Every structure is written in structure tokens, then in C-alpha cells.
């Protein structure tokens, strides 16, 4: 089965997961109460409840790592509980591949893929890249600093991720304007300009992604250098360059979303997922081709 198909199913299921608690408790979506006059449990009393910004799994709190840092900057010690919950989330994503959140969970990426398809159907051509992908790291630093200055989490008030996840569950659509702007930019300015270069949460996960243990591996003998993987890459084609040039055997950049788009599109099946941070550089390539026992 194509990885992309599995990934899209997971993206939809994640949205369903957050919508289920209020529905099972007899409430409606968008914060609306759909029950009758009888007493019903609140959705928060269930095993799981929340949004992508903050949720709980039984007694375990789970927080968006960037939101937790913003709270810490804005409120100091009052955010220590959020930091503990964020640490669990950050550790899991960092060990897998931090920007797997962007590829497999974030609803903005799912919408972006829909915009990609719409642009192709409409025949609209946009540049592949207009800004440096590392700008989003600066954006993450900026929103934390701004939160410290104003005393509240700045990005959470305009987050397009929250506009979807909080909107569906709680009816809070504060980031809807940002989401509309992203769709317009995706259609007419540049491909993936938000996810690649501006999203502060993506910037934080880009830094954590260097520790990821799930990596795209290349078989240099099978690669025909057709360029289709670069065309398919959702993160930024430049992250594939070291592997395609023969200087590395895995895609090492923290920006990789482990989305599998490059693996799916490779006609020679030269790309696959591997586990672990394999040794880098051309030396590894030579050893792979001509293994020699050490004496």
C-alpha cells in the first residue's frame, strides 16, 4: 500500500480522534451542546480530550511543545505542568522524526496537499521556493520572545493548526484568518511557503528532527537520478541533495517529515525507510558497495 495513502488516512483519523470525545459525551462539535435536558458528562471527563495544542490522556497531560514554551515565557512557573506534558510529546516525536507531526498529524499539511492538487488542476504555476526553510526556526524564537513581552502565548492566538483542531472541538476559530492567508499564498505565491519556511512549530520540530530514528534511506546503485523524489518532496527538495549526490545514505536534515512522498514516487525503488542514524558521507557508500572485513 502506498505510504501517502496510509498517511492521509492517519491525518483524517487524528481529526476524528479529537472529535470523538464530545460526540460520545452527547455534545456536538464546535463547542455546541447537542443533548437534551438531562444531565450528561462533560467531554473532559472521558479518557481522552483536547486539541492539538493541549489535551489529556487519562491523568497524563499532553501539550504542544511550542505552546508550552510560550506559556513558560509568558507566565514563568505557572507553565511547569505544561512543560512536563510537552516533554512527553517532544520526546516521542524527536525519537521518531520530529516533523513527522507535520507530515502525519498536522491538518494544515493535509489542507496544503489539497491546495497542491487544486493548483495542478487549475494549471497555476508558482515558484518551488521563495524563502529559506530555516526562517521558521527564527519564527519559533520570535514567537517565544513576543510571548514573554506581551504576557500571553502569541502564536496560539493566530495558529492555523488551532483554527482546525480547536475549531472542530471547542468552536474557537481564532486562527481562521491565518489559514485563509496560507491557502491564498499556497495557490498564488509559492508551494508550501507556510510549512516550509514560516511555521514556528515546524521550526521547533526542525531542530528536534536531527535526532530522528526513522529516516529515508537511499540505495545509490538503484538510483537513476530522475528527479521525481525532489518534485514530490513536501518539506524542501534541497534536503535530499546530500543523499542524491552520494555524500550520505540517509536524508539527515531535521526538516524531513518522513511523509513517504519521495519513497512512493521513486520508479527505481531506490528509496525506503530505515531505522537508526546510520553513518554519514561517501565513505559509507563505498563500504556499502564493497564491504571488506577488518583484520
From TrEMBL:
GO molecular function, one term: 4 iron, 4 sulfur cluster binding
The entry's keywords: 4Fe-4S, Electron transport, Iron, Iron-sulfur, Membrane, Metal-binding, Transmembrane, Transmembrane helix, Transport
Cited Gene3D superfamilies: 3.30.70.20
Domain of life the protein comes from: Bacteria
Signal sequence coordinates: none
Keyword Lipid biosynthesis: no
Any one GO cellular component localisation term in the record: plasma membrane
Membrane-crossing segments per the record: 71-96, 137-155, 167-189
Pfam family, one: Fer4_5
PROSITE patterns associated with the record: 4FE4S_FER_1 (PS00198), 4FE4S_FER_2 (PS51379)
Annotated ranges, domain 4Fe-4S ferredoxin-type: 214-243, 247-276
Name this protein carries in UniProt: 4Fe-4S binding protein
